[in-house]
Amino acid sequence: MADRGCPLQPMPLPAEVRESLAELELELSEGDITQKGYEKKKAKLLARYIPLIQGVDASLQAEPRIPGPSQTMAAAPKQQKPRPTNSRDERFRSDVHTEAVQAALAKYKERKMPLPSKRRSILVHSSVETCTPPDTSSASEDEGSLRRPGRLTSTPLQSHSSVEPWLDRVIQGSSTSSSASSTSSHPGGRPAAALAGLVAHAHIADLHSAPPDVTTGLVEYSPCERPQPASVRGVPRGCSGRLLDTSGGVPVNSRVSSKIQQLLNTLKRPKRPPLKEFFVDDMEELLEVQQPDPNQPKPEGSQMVVLKGEPLSLGTPWPPSLLAALQRWGTMQPKAPCLTALDTTGKAVYTLTYGKLWSRSLKLAYTLLNKLTSKNEPLLKPGDRVALVFPNSDPVMFMVAFYGCLLAELVPVPIEVPLTKKDAGSQQIGFLLGSCGVTLALTTDACQKGLPKAQTGEVATFKGWPPLNWLVIDGKHLTKPPKDWHPLAQDEGAGTAYIEYKTSKEGSTVGVTVSHASLLAQCRALTQACGYLEAETLTNVLDFKRDAGLWHGVLTSVMNKMHVISIPYALMKVNPLSWIQKVCLYKAQTALVKSRDMHWSLLAQRGQRDVSLSSLRMLIVADGANPWSISSCDAFLNVFQSRGLRPEVICPCASSPEALTVAIRRPPDLGGPPPRKAVLSMNGLSYGVIRVDTEEKLSVLTVQDVGQVMPGASICVVKMDGAPYLCKTDEVGEICVDSNATGTAYYGLLGITKNVFEDNLVFIVGKLDGLMVVGVRRHNADDIVATALAVEPMKFVYRGRIAVFSVRVLHDDRIVLVAEQRPDASEEDSFQWMSRVLQAIDSIHQVGVYCLALVPANTLPKAPLGGVHVSEAKQRFLEGMLHPCNVLMCPHTCVTNLPKPRQKQPEVGPASMIVGNLVAGKRIAQASGRELAHLEDSDQARKFLFLPDVLQWRAHTTPDHPLFLLLNAKGTVTSTATCVQLHRKAERVAAALTEKARLSIGDHVALVYPPGVDLIAAFYGCLYCGCVPVTVRPPHPQNLATTLPTVKMIVEVSKSACVLTTQAIMRLLKSKEAAATVDVRTWPTILDTDDIPKKKVTNVFRPPSPDVLAYLDFSVSTTGILAGVKMSHAATSALCRSIKLQCELYPSRQIAICLDPYCGLGFALWCLCSVYSGHQSVLVPPLELESNVSLWLSAVSQYKARVTFCSYSVMEMCTKGLGAQTGVLRMKGVNLSCVRTCMVVAEERPRIALTQSFSKLFKDLGLPARAVSTTFGCRVNVAICLQGTAGPDPTTVYVDMRALRHDRVRLVERGSPHSLPLTESGKILPGVKVIIAHTETKGPLGDSHLGEIWVSSPHNATGYYTVHGEEALHADHFSARLSFGDTQTIWARTGYLGFLRRTELTDASGERHDALYVVGSLDETLELRGMRYHPIDIETSVIRAHRSIAECAVFTWTNLLVVVVELDGLEQDALDLVALVTNVVLEEHHLVVGVVVIVDPGVIPINSRGEKQRMHLRDGFLADQLDPIYVAYNM
Fold first, then answer.
1. 63-102 per-position pLDDT tens digit
2. d(CA 241, CA 214)
3. In 62-152, at which residue ranges do the beta strands (DSSP E only) sit?
4. Phi and psi of 347, rounded to 5°?
5. What's the pLDDT at 341?
6. How far, in Å, CA of 585 to CA of 611, rounded?
7. Alpha carbon distance 411, 429 (integer Å)
């Protein structure tokens, strides 16, 4: 901005203005005033100074400030603060990090990223105020932020000109001004190309429709295109946009495809160096191993020496033990104050004197040892562990309990108060109590009343906790010891004094045991290091149950007869200044705080003129080792130096549960050297090397010293990995402490103890727990939190609550950042904050964030004192229980160790292939069903060449033989047809067609009927008069808009001259509703066959040759293509003959069919087979199962069907709907033991999981274990395999899924990793020959090689019936020849991948049996990274990822993998799925998901066979018709 001619002078604001600003900050952060009110008051405060800062005309001061929606922090000079005189070198300012972040963001060109879209019902409706982009100059309000109070860190106030256009855009809702022009025309305006999708705000999209901007995946995104309306449902679609066609010929609506285009644009610019393109053997998908960078910094210093602290002074008369000190003060100076407890208003509630502490502890010790019995045995023995459960507001009772336990020689284990049955981490605490053998818990009356209770009134048992006895230790419950009773307390030596709990990064809880000797040594060392004197006053804000709060405020204080003022967390929440006021009030010499407390008090120093900190000689900062403590220390000193705080008073210290206090800075009067700081290169640190940063100011970490080694201790730094060798002087390692004052063991965990505590080596470091190893570099979680907090454009993170942790995905740590967002943040705010955080972390740490999630305020699991419980947050993330409200995944940038993309190898020539097959001992993969010639006399076959002849013959010879029974939902027979009835009905239809419709021979007739006998009669009626029937599924009355166009399309494409149907459907086809969808005037003649006159045809048409067309079979493939195939009379009778032989069908048999009768094998079984073979078919329309699920199985049982057919969707309905009802069905007499074979009619890979669960479920009803099998057919041949009644059982093999991607078959053992079960699709039908051909060379392949299945058979279809002119394209589908080998046979290509494998079984003819395994449709496969993926494999993995994923479908769009997931659960849980879906696909398939779409159950379209229509889904997604709950675009 400075370069645009606004002279900017750094200009200090007076102190009182700064204080008022800080006060405003706090009010806003606590929600006391609205954003608007805050803006107003702030503008007023700054009004006098703005003209000076900005050089803006004073008349504009009243303008409220509204910056542009995407505020880039310009790298303009910041307003400087007046520095205190002792200010050191400019580079060591603590806010260098904040400025680095802002500079990094300014340097970053904002890239357009697609905004995730969210359904309205989950959007919080934002008021206009929240859409006004809030101001950025505020500080973050909470734990560990990096801002100084009231410092104007934002871009200088925008000049007036950029305010107007933004304002009027909000008012008019005009989203047409292009983002590029609005920038260039207004000096001082927003940077160009703001994040697309952010400009037009949500409320605008509701008021005006913006013309859609249509881009396909092929058009470069130009900067001047219109900004997209925000992704919100309910935007009226404008019609002015030009519509481009996608590859499928479907017009694409703007929103989705332009977002995908933005996503592609962000992915086009590779961040990381591209993968080296070289060759790996296809079989091994080796993950890229990250090679160390040859230029990475290496340690160069000499080996370090051990640092020794000064010896413990010998001249001082130390008390021999802590309890001796307590007894001495308690008896000699009983009136001396020991501890003052405050309530939440800050009033002193109670002061415990040393006399009271001594007498009460004795009473408790006596009670514990003598008054608690179980079965006449004392409950406790010396050395037993006792849990101390006291709230943070009751230090008095805690202290009594702690010393009472020590006096009774019991080991106290202080833990948090469990507030609910499922607190964060509470189960782990239970594990600790169990492993310590705790049976007794001490607590107070008030606390015990507040614990969750069971029905009996007892304290509830918490999840994972051992059974506990609860003892209330208020005075009235204790017994006074007799005069002569003295405790035996031995409090020296190696015995355990107490156990402190510690939670690791993974969330497991361990207990660190501290011995009496260590306790005493620690107290002495702290006394000497801090120069504690008798009767000093100390204020303590920390948790007194553990860590520094316990060591200083409960133990060392008693040794020195000090007076501790304990400030509860609840009081700090209400009044963050309370600790400063108490220091002032009690003239405390020492204060014990965390940097968070200093930060809070900065925000809250509301005109407190009268506080003075001059009494302090030490301000101990317990988390001084944290990277962000330094900014709090500096900022605190800046403000409070004027109130008596001396710079040398601030004493950061470092500690850990294992080593206790590691180091503490001492004031100069205690011999401490002056404090030092260092600015280290973050890049160097990530490689474990210390480099003082010189050039690059951006990516640095400022650290402060934590003083000297403790008295009587030595410290060294050892390497983190491998054996603990000493580090070099410029190498980062783990600090080890050797001293008498460290912990001694993890309780009960010998293995870990060995590594950590033996040789007195103990570790602590800038928190090893927070270390994340990404690739070959290490990053500290705290540093990343600090960077994220520094971004904060509008105090976005609620109370600064951020969790950073790493998860293992694809063999590497991936960084996850979860933040709580403020309740009033809008979608755009969130997305903008997220994209800026990504950029800042990328810039400063050079590491990608894998997942960034925002959760609503107050929903991250809390640690006891209000921090974030990181391990619990991680657990919830991995279990999909975090419930975020916004998610941004960036797998494309982070995951750099994917396997190399596969490169197709140059093809091998045909000849070498054949030789290769033979050399490898592989026979050519071909197989055939039984020979037709040997099976029956060909005389009958000749007789049965034409189906109309067969029907007439049956009507003549067995007129009353029943052929069909149709059942309704109740299971009653609604219509039947004997041979003669069917013949007569067919005659009537034929007569009507010739006389009424005046059709001639060869005309096509569309049959639009519900499943039933009428359909069959109409079919034969057409054959009787020489017409060609086309069966069409009738439109769905409730869903005309989607089903009617398909009907119309088939009628038109098949060139039908007439439509035969029922009266009801005829009315529907001509209805008003139908007219809204199709042009009803263009229907051909429509005849209803309900009441046609009884007429005979003069003569039944007999085709001149068997090759004449009999019928057309139309079906929509899973890829969404409508394909009709031509079936000749010869093929039709050959098909019936093969099925008859395979299933042993005779007139005496009954079979049950639960299939749709419109195409493929379903049609053949309904309409053709019964007439050919004479068996009786029980017809069960699948639609009827919706009202009665058990209909099909009851029919099978009732009619004792040996053979039954169904589809996967029917099987799924039975499995889901009847799972719990097998008992009821048995009572009703359903018995399935009659079934020899139950076949699932399918055109896909067998669904093993479904067929197995069906078999298991209905085994109870007598279904034989081997009965269920599958069939396989496709467009070129509707029945290739069918199990039938004879022949060996289907076999199952396990193949390696990774090999399949490379078009190889590798057989593996069951249960081996990446194994995929495949089962054979029934037996090859008689007369059918199958061969496996190479998809590209069209040469034959060997046994167990994956290729396309080719089929040759008398019942192959003769060709596609397509619109004229396209026949040539598909000619080779029906008349393909091998490129070598047997080049004479004519084959049809199925379009399916599979392989043949010779098994050990023998078939009926005594030959070894060849099994055909179908892997999947070629058209459906996804080509990604040079490999071939089958959607079903990815979908199976995704469905396993979370219990609320009901169904899933995947497809690709412009090389992005899109995963659509149906959510069976609450909408607010939708976003949990995004990360889990991305993780599982990466882990199991090595693919990066591009878009995750979460939709309602039932959105994924499924055809009548139960197959997913992925292309329909894709078209619906691109045309924005899915109404998704959430769409996440992974960056």
1. 333 333 333 333 333 333 333 334 333 434 455 567 777 7
2. 7
3. 117-118
4. -80, 145
5. 95
6. 9
7. 16
pLDDT in tens, 1182-1240: 999 999 999 999 999 999 999 999 999 999 999 999 888 888 999 999 999 999 999 99
Identify which has the larger pLDDT, 721 or 443.
443
Closest CA to 847 of 811, 893, 915, 796: 893
Q: State the DSSP H helix or E strand holding residue 681, giving kind and residue range, or none if neither.
A: strand 677-681
| Best CA proximity match to 1007, nearest among 1046, 1074, 1058 | 1058
The count of other CB atoms within 10 Å of the CB of residue 984 is 17
The dihedral over CA atoms of 440, 443, 444, 446, expressed in degrees to the nearest 10, equals: -110
Half-sphere exposure of 1455 (CA within 13 A, CB side): 12
Q: How far apart are CA 31 and CA 24, in angstroms?
A: 10
Q: How many CA atoms lie within 13 A of 386 on its CB side?
A: 35
The first and second tokens of residue 334, run together, are 């009983």
What pLDDT digit, counting tens, does each position of 867-890 carry? Answer: 788 888 998 999 999 999 989 988
Cβ proximity of 1296 and 1315 under 8 Å: yes
Which burial class, exposed, middle or buried, applies to 1466 when counting CB atoms under 10 A from its CB (0-12, 13-18, 19+)?
Answer: exposed
Position 378 scores a pLDDT of: 74
Tokens 């067309």 found at: 1109
Cα separation, 429 vs 849, whole angstroms: 31
Sequence-ordered list of residues with C-beta below 8 angstroms from that of 198, at least 6 positions apart, any chain: 69, 70, 115, 227, 230, 828, 831, 832
Q: What does the pLDDT average to over 902-916?
A: 60
Decide if 558 contacts 329 (C-beta within 8 A). yes
DSSP per-residue letters across 494-555: TSEEEEEEEE-TTS-EEEEEEEHHHHHHHHHHHHHHHT--TT-EEEE-S-TTSHHHHIIIII
* In contact, 1477 and 1441? CB cutoff 8 Å: yes
Percent of the chain with pLDDT over 70: 76
- Regarding pTM above 0.90, the answer is no
pLDDT surpassing 50 at residue 180: no
Count of all residues that appear for the chain in the document: 1531
Instruction: Please write down the HEC assignment for all residues of 164-212.
Output: HHHHHHHHHCCCCCCHHHHHHCCCCCCCCCCCCCCCECHHHHHHCCCCC
Can you tell me whether residue 771 is helix, strand or coil?
strand
What is the Cα–Cα distance from 659 to 502, expressed in whole angstroms? 12
Q: Are strands 708-709 and 660-664 parallel, antiparallel or unpaired?
A: antiparallel
Task: Find out whether 1142 and 1284 touch, Cβ atoms under 8 Å.
Answer: yes
- Mean pLDDT along residues 8-25: 69
Phi, psi of 1228 (to 5 degrees): -75, 0
Tokens for 729, please give them.
């002087």
Whether 1345 and 1395 have beta carbons less than 8 Å apart is answered as: yes
One-letter amino acid at 1493 equals V
Provide the residue type at 1510 as one letter: R
Q: What is the pLDDT of residues 1477-1529, one digit of tens each?
A: 999 999 999 999 999 999 999 999 888 778 888 988 998 999 988 899 999 98
> Cα torsion at 1393, 1399, 1402, 1407 (round to 10°)?
70
Instruction: Give the whole-angstrom CA distance, residue 619 versus residue 632.
Output: 13
Q: How far apart are CA 882 and CA 1443, in angstroms?
A: 14
HSE-up (13 A, CA, CB side) for residue 722 = 4
Exposed/middle/buried for residue 529 (C-beta within 10 Å: 0-12, 13-18, 19+): buried
CA distance 1143 to 1132: 17
- List for the chain the helix, strand, coil content (%; round to 5): 35, 20, 45
